Amino acid sequence: MPHSFQHILGPEIVQRSSREDKYETRINNWLRPWDGTERIDVGFLAIPFSKAHQRGHSGASDAPNAVRRSFLINTTYSPDFDVDVKPLVARDLGDVKTGMGDVRQHHAVFEAAIVEIYQTLGDVMLVIVGGDHSITCPLVQGYSRSHPKEKIGIVHFDAHNDVRHYEDGQPTRGTSFRGIIEGPANVTGANLVQVGIHGFMNSHYYRQYCREQGITVITARDIRRRGIQDVMTQAIDIAGNGTDSIYVSLDIDCLALPFTLGTAAATPEGMEAWDLLEALFTLGQHPKVRALDLVCIDPLRDFREYTARMGGSSILTFLGGYVIRKTGGRGY
Fold it and tell me: In 3D, which of 131, 134, 142 has the Cα closest to residue 170?
């Protein structure tokens, strides 16, 4: 009997590629909609939500479909990492329902959807595409509810600390990590590492909050001076110290502006694309890493899908690391 989800609809778009020969596999032909019965390794989940934007208009709700469309040019093999993700059974689980409620109501649905997925599929590797960054708090809470005995570490790539206060109103895309630390999820600041924080867009007050909570902040300048391998060794050591699992959250604005035209708050001081990809490849291989979210791509601001393609490459590189972990080889 096929399973169906209460909080998730089928994929809004399904795109297949005719540009495939017998010696290559296109991502859009590999990442098919889940049929409700298959045992899968990777679940791709869309959360088309961007109502928690502090100011102005955001088109981030269209990002999941933009990433799906960007996969049209991709195959399952990367010569850079000499890895093929084809052996992974990856399926598109669809789009979490969004409606007319307020932010907190939506967040409750997102959390419930994560619980529902783990109850149905077990410990699948979840790759979640939002949406704005407010979704990460309910996603981590949903993971924690589904794994109540696990202590969770987090590696968070971003330009911003996202630990804003709540006194001004309901949750926004800038409150996620305060919400996680102060909320019910089994996460402490000592196991939260923020990577790539940069630019004249943050506050000394919030940096002090991070210090008080024991959060480790590694700036884009730190990465430039130290190198990404050294940084990731530290990040994984801290996020994994005494924890059972690691959740990875990727805000695309961690990257420098030329790589992220399609987001609201990128600046030139950010990370280089290759540093991010190396970090994700490393994280995909680590046995404690259980989920990845990708947020804050705004197709309304994008140019010729540059940022959506960066998001797609980030996901595939992470899965390139995961196939090594899952199969013990490079997928061929």
Answer: 134
